[in-house]
Specification:
Elements: E1 2-6, H1 11-22, E2 26-31, H2 38-44, E3 48-51, E4 64-67, H3 76-84, E5 88-90, H4 91-100, E6 104-109, H5 114-127, E7 133-135, E8 147-148, E9 154-158, E10 163-165, E11 168-171, E12 180-183, H6 197-210, E13 216-220, H7 224-231, E14 237-243, E15 249-253, E16 260-265, E17 268-274, H8 280-295, H9 300-307, E18 318-323, E19 326-331, H10 336-350, E20 355-359, H11 364-367, H12 375-378, E21 384-388, E22 407-410, H13 413-423, E23 429-433, H14 441-450
Length: 452
């Protein structure tokens, strides 16, 4: 079968392309932004990439077109698909029909931590010899790829609440029908498609409705929005998680930065984890992954042991350079809660060493200014913060910082790089936070620091 994918260079759609190739299909795809590393990865898989969206990309006609949720009516290639009557599906529909059918699906949902927890769960199953399939919205360092079919009956999928396609406005995750569902947390996000938190809770409850009675739902004890969602009706067994409090899965910190902790399951000590990750949020992610792995048949003691070798995901506090005694991190955090927990975790790890946060407000929700008043508080753990004010942001960051003297706003990436070159000194930790490429600032900053 020849499958053509619209929006193929997105992380999710690129993962689908890899899975389709592993199933033996001929795969091509088009995208407006075709550039490394995604383009290189796809071409190495034998996937033909086409630059731009044009009707002629559909010649000769593919057997099936899979349409990404970034595309809408008016796109010339979408219009050609409709006008020619070509068969088409959304990405989540294709995944359900061609990959997830007859698999034990483990779905990881939540506002924060989906990518890390999905990667972690896949690694626990892999270490136990279950050879899971997976689809992750990032590249797990333990695997080096974002998707694979796997050789076992389990498939671990990052269950995103974003909408499915221009013709299906339900959240992606309602298509996956997990047998094991992790609900990590729930906050207001994706302001471009959800008017309020209640709208997101409605979609999460749609997910809850799809989990079978003999399945499992894992969630923290202290998340009010999730409690409200589950109170709407739940027909599935539940297991809870907590740090330093009673729950089915409990973690007790043995180091303040979350780098070492003890795990208990229903009061019984399972073991200790000593790993390279930081932050309470990652400890919480670990508890969820342990619960899901146990439901998939992994011995908890074995799973705890496997956590010690988990290496996280690219762009999740990934050290990309160490220059003249200065450590540079690349992080995906773009929601105030994620920014705060990431910096708190680093602060607990480095003590009094100086932290400089460099933030690009790039997500759709950030660009709408929904979380503008929370930015200053989210950056409190940093000694100094530089926020990039892009020319088309639509609101002025300076108007929402109050009296935060440690935060400066700059309108030019080159200016930020020059400032880092002036102020950074050995022993500093520089954290670059963005859900995009941030104008190539990572390489620019590393080079500036080498020449300081």
């Amino acid at each position: 079968m020849h499958i053509h994918i619209l929006g193929v260079c997105g992380t999710f759609m690129g993962g689908l392309a890899v899975l389709a190739r592993q199933l033996g299909h001929q795969v091509s795809g088009s995208d407006q932004n075709v550039y490394p590393p995604m383009s290189t990865q796809l071409e190495q898989q034998g996937i033909r990439l086409l630059h731009g969206y044009r009707p002629e990309n559909l010649d000769p006609a593919p057997d099936l077109v899979v349409i990404g949720n970034a595309l809408s009516r008016g796109n010339p290639e979408v219009e050609a698909v409709l006008n020619r009557g070509l068969p088409y599906l959304s990405g989540p529909e294709w995944l359900r029909e061609y990959v997830l059918q007859d698999r034990h699906v483990i779905g990881i949902a939540g506002t924060h931590g989906k990518t890390t927890t999905t990667s972690m769960t896949a690694w626990l199953l892999e270490a136990a010899g279950l050879v899971p399939g997976f689809l992750v919205g990032g590249v797990p360092l333990n695997f080096g790829v974002s998707a694979r079919l796997g050789g076992g009956r389990h498939f671990v999928v990052e269950a995103d609440e974003y909408d499915t396609a221009f013709f299906d406005k339900r959240s992606k995750f309602v298509h996956y029908r997990p047998r094991t569902a992790i609900l990590n947390n729930l906050e207001y996000d994706h302001a471009d498609i959800f008017p309020d938190l209640a709208a997101i809770q409605k979609q999460f409850h749609h997910l809850v409705r799809t989990v079978p009675g003999n399945g499992l739902i894992v969630h923290p004890t202290d998340d009010t929005a999730l409690k409200e969602t589950l109170a709407q009706g739940c027909w599935t067994a539940q297991e809870t998680t907590a740090i330093g409090a009673e729950a089915d899965w409990r973690a007790d910190l043995l180091r303040a930065d979350g780098g070492r902790f003890r795990v208990r399951y229903r009061g019984e000590e399972i073991g200790e984890v000593n790993w390279e990750l930081t932050g309470k949020h990652n400890v919480a992610n670990a508890l969820s992954a342990l619960a899901a792995a146990r439901h998939a048949g992994v011995d908890p003691v074995r799973a705890v042991t496997a956590l010690r070798t988990f290496r996280n995901v690219r762009r999740r506090m990934e050290v990309f350079a160490e220059v003249n005694g200065i450590t540079l991190y690349d992080d995906f955090a773009h929601h105030p809660t994620a920014i705060r927990t990431t910096l708190d975790g680093l602060r607990a790890r480095v003590g009094s060493a100086r932290i400089v946060a460099v933030l690009e407000p790039r997500s759709n929700t950030m660009r709408l200014g929904v979380h503008a008043d929370q930015l200053a508080g989210a950056l409190e753990a940093a000694d100094e913060s530089l926020i990039y004010q892009p020319p088309n942001l639509g609101w002025d960051v300076r108007d929402h910082l109050g009296n935060a003297a440690s935060i400066r706003v700059m309108e030019d990436i080159g200016e930020i790089v020059a400032e880092l070159g002036r102020v950074a000194r050995p022993g500093d930790h520089l954290v670059f936070m963005s859900n995009g490429g941030f104008g190539g600032i990572h390489a620019l900053a590393a080079e500036a620091l080498r020449n300081m």
